[in-house]
Amino acid sequence: MAWEAGWRRSVPGGRVDRISEWTERRAPAVVATVAMLVVVMAFSLSGHTLVHGGHGGLKSPHDLWSLAGSSSMILHGRFGDIYVRHGALTSPPALEVALVPVTALGELLGLSPRLPGTGEPLSMWLVLGPAAVLMASTVLFALDAVARQWRFSEQSRLVLALVGAFGVANVVGWWGHPEDCVSVAFAVWAALAVDRFGTAGARRAGWLLGFGVAFQPLALLAVVPVLARLNWRDAGRQVWRIALPSLLFLLPPLLAETHRTLFVMVRQPFEPAYISLTPLTPLATHLAPGLDGGGFTRLAAIVVSAAVALVVCRRYPGLDVVLASSAFAFFVRILLETEMNWYYLWPVPALCLLLALRRSRFRFTVCAVALASSVLLGDRRVHDIALWWPALMATALVMLLSAAPPPRRWPRIVHGLGRVGGSVGGWVGGSVGGSVGGPRVRPDQRATAP
């Protein structure tokens, strides 16, 4: 219409047109985000009645309130109280900083904060809940960006986004940890940056990985898969970019309460009474009565997955291989965990759904069914691992295999990896001797696994 065209032209820079174009290009992710927001908020407002029966009440995740409490401490300058005993925060406080405007808006509007022992008031949740969902939805847009590059049909992208939103809704609405979704999103965008721009995208990838680690250190598992496509010099130059965001976010609590902050970041404390156990729980470091630490096995997962990714991604430097190696790294992480909550598993289906859909609709269906099964198994705290833990790991393994190449191609892949020793040796040796190991990645390189 004429009035609409005139209004659009009157907006500086054609902002409305740009927003409309941006939304149209990402329509599947936008639709899935809106649907997820409606479902999560509806469940939170009526979930108490659905789950427990009787009178209505707010059904919201305790961990998210704990993270919001740390955000409130940042808002009021109480940096020494960001990390507290029995708190949910065990990573750099990037999410809490991102939630500061939300917390400030809630307090400005006079919304009631959650107070221990008084239950969760409705008012603050109407701000905190949607903000958490929108932050977590970043992973849907990251996966959709890859789907667009791989030229998925509109229908396939919508199905991918909706099934992915099911997992994201569980991470946020049930467990209260949007930072895991944000971290995976940054890792996917980093891989996409290197795939699109080659070495020219290394800086962008470094910053993206850095912010991913600042939200949740699980992004460390994607560092080697993403950077292995570069020569050693370009990869090494990204180390400070990966480390800097976390250091900046950690600096205020480190200065205000050094001992407590280092204790949380290094020891990774958890309370066995409030998590599900795994076969490796006895290996957890005993820190205090009712308090264990899980940092050792997570470090082992990083080392093991990094070694595998270095070999695989140097031989097959395609985006699909980088994402598959990252999914494998996330699987190794949960396999070696001394504690278990379902949202730890979420990064595996997040990537496997995308990779499985690229191979076939049947594989995608298998992956989606495994995801739903894992949610049914994982949305509880179980201290008897005899059947529960193997079943949950089986669902993750099914998702991983649904994204893998067909078994008939495995011998060819293994044979190809057997010839990569010289390439990896040159990459590592070059870092010592000063020569560049391995070819530079060009934007037109799209080598993939057989």
Structure description:
With 450 residues, the chain is mainly α. It is globular, with a radius of gyration of 22 Å. The model is unreliable at 48-52, 115-119 and 427-450 (pLDDT under 50). α6 runs antiparallel to α7 and α8 packs parallel to α19. The chain has one domain. It starts with a helix and ends in a 17-residue tail after the last helix. It has a 3-stranded antiparallel β-sheet. The chain has helices at 2-10, 15-25, 27-52, 62-75, 94-98, 100-108, 122-136, 138-149, 154-175, 178-197, 202-215, 223-227, 232-236, 239-256, 258-267, 295-315, 319-335, 342-345, 347-359, 361-378, 385-402, 410-418, 421-433, and strands at residues 269-270, 285-288, 291-293.
SSE topology sketch:
Layout: H1 2-10, H2 15-25, H3 27-52, H4 62-75, H5 94-98, H6 100-108, H7 122-136, H8 138-149, H9 154-175, H10 178-197, H11 202-215, H12 223-227, H13 232-236, H14 239-256, H15 258-267, E1 269-270, E2 285-288, E3 291-293, H16 295-315, H17 319-335, H18 342-345, H19 347-359, H20 361-378, H21 385-402, H22 410-418, H23 421-433
Antiparallel strand pairs: 1-3, 2-3
Helix pairs in contact: 3-7, 3-9, 4-6, 6-7, 7-9, 7-10, 8-9, 8-10, 8-19, 9-19, 10-11, 11-14, 14-15, 16-17, 17-19, 17-21, 19-20, 19-21, 20-21
